[in-house]
Write a structure and sequence with these properties.
With about 325 residues, the protein is of the alpha/beta class. A hairpin with a 2-residue loop joins strand 1 and strand 2. The N and C termini lie far apart (about 60 Å).
Length: about 325
Amino acid sequence: MTAATPPSTAAAEPALRCRDLRKRYGDLEAVAGVSFEVRRGEVFGLLGPNGAGKTTTVEMLEGIRDPDGGELTVLGLDPRNHGREIKSRIGVQLQNAALYPFLTVTELIELFGRFFPRRRPTADVIAALDLGEKRSAQTRTLSGGQQQRLSVALALVNEPELVFLDEPTTGLDPAARRSLWGVIQGLRDRGTSILLTTHYMEEAEVLCDRLAIMDHGRILDSGTVEELVGRRFRERAVRFHRIDGLDDIVLARLAGVSRLAHEDDEVVLYTTDVATTIGAVLAAADGVGAQPDNLGVRRASLEDVFLDLTGHALRD
């Protein structure tokens, strides 16, 4: 009997793997021992506030910055020895791309395509990013959302196996943001591996197969949204605006409450007995002559995980 053929190394190897990655600027350790991997054909997210170290991490993975320590492989290769080969197989969308202002969309995509031995047809790239109506427009005339889509288009001209998207929807209106989400989901459906950084909670929940929560240069936890929530919460969240006269000591002792948190001007009480806890909140508020404003209940979410890990809400 013939032995089964083992899976290929390329298929078994993650698209990206880093271990104990570090970067320091003077006294600031911007990246402090980051470890994770991006599997083939998945969207992996780095979620965190501005200043968390996401962009510095991504720039090291892309080969733009040299790490001060740690191990890194991209598409199974060491960037220190195979930088040129890696760059021909990845796509990079930067937060702030300086585009040639007087070239048209078509001319710019054609120009970038000539940099690579393998390229995707320009018409396909334009169609994928919904830039057909702007194919003959100079890039200086594009709106912010159109420029973001063009920036992503330029990252796709070489049919990359791995794409880096660094906060691609920052500054976009909700409609433009959701349009770009569709593009990212389409890339995943084609089997492209994607590393996405974002500071939008909803974006991470919608797009990411797995994600890591990052703050102050460190990975605090990682997994699917369900895994992250399930590891910390079995409760529901009862939320309402702060009430003068009800301090944390009183609220934490209300019936059914397992823990308490604050988000902006709201109190968040986690409970396994919603009805009992709401009754206790109403009674306590009545005792100080108040009514709880915007009282609501929801299941624990990624937002609760971030709040639990960092002690503060994620700011856009």
